[in-house]
Design brief:
The longest helix is centred in the last third of the chain and has 49 residues. The protein is elongated and about 75 Å long. A hairpin with a 4-residue loop joins strand 1 and strand 2. Strands 3-2-1-6-5-4 form a 6-stranded antiparallel beta sheet, with helices on both faces. The protein has a single domain, classed as Beta-Lactamase (2-Layer Sandwich), CATH 3.30.450. With 191 residues, it is an alpha+beta fold.
Length: 191
């Protein structure tokens, strides 16, 4: 059973470094109780372009997939997860997944045999997926799913926090630009 003490949560959120490094720290923690979780990855969803884009990963076995994007509409199974909000478990990836995309070809090549996919949200809006992968068959039992869901919540909160910081910076930059334009207008009018 997984438990989070206040010290661990504080360390995760106060940790300096990138979000990817913090996910690596969380992955280290997961490996103590669930050594079968060999990969944690996150894809962020760009709603304007209907694109899932690789965002975070902590890969202990195999090669990390980076700089990959894919239209959500082109993946009926992920689209169902995004719309339903329900996680998905694949127990036999090698027999279920067909090598019909760059991602599925990569997944099969890595030798992952089971996967647990959780949709993530920010303020009620779908923002992406967290993927947990294992080379073990049927690795994601109901107990492990429950425990990983708790970890996924921490990852989701971390991502939401980062997105809020980015939105704040963008808003501040827009306000500064608007203020500069206003000052230019006032300067022109008073001359």
């Amino acid at each position: 059973m997984t438990s989070f003490d206040q010290n661990f949560i504080s360390q995760l959120f106060e940790r300096s470094g990138t979000l990817n490094e913090r996910v690596g720290y969380l992955h280290d923690r997961i490996l103590h109780t669930m050594p079968l979780v060999e990969r944690i990855a996150c894809a962020i969803y760009d709603a304007e372009q209907d694109q899932l884009k690789t965002f975070l990963n902590s890969t202990r076995k195999g090669e990390a997939m980076v700089a990959y994007d894919y239209k959500l509409a082109d993946s009926p199974s992920l689209l169902i997860i995004a719309k339903s909000g329900e996680p998905r478990v694949l127990n036999e990836i090698q027999t279920v997944i067909k090598s019909n995309s760059l991602h599925s070809t990569w997944l099969l090549k890595q030798g992952y045999n089971s996967s647990f996919t959780i949709p993530i949200y920010d303020s009620g809006l779908f923002i992406g997926f967290i993927f947990f992968d294992s080379t073990e068959h049927a690795a994601f039992t109901p107990v492990i799913q429950r425990d990983l869901s708790l970890h996924a919540s921490l990852i989701n909160m971390s991502i939401s926090s980062e997105l809020a910081a980015v939105r704040s910076i963008v808003t501040s930059a827009k306000l500064a630009r608007d203020f500069a334009h206003l000052r230019d207008f006032e300067t022109r009018c008073s001359s």
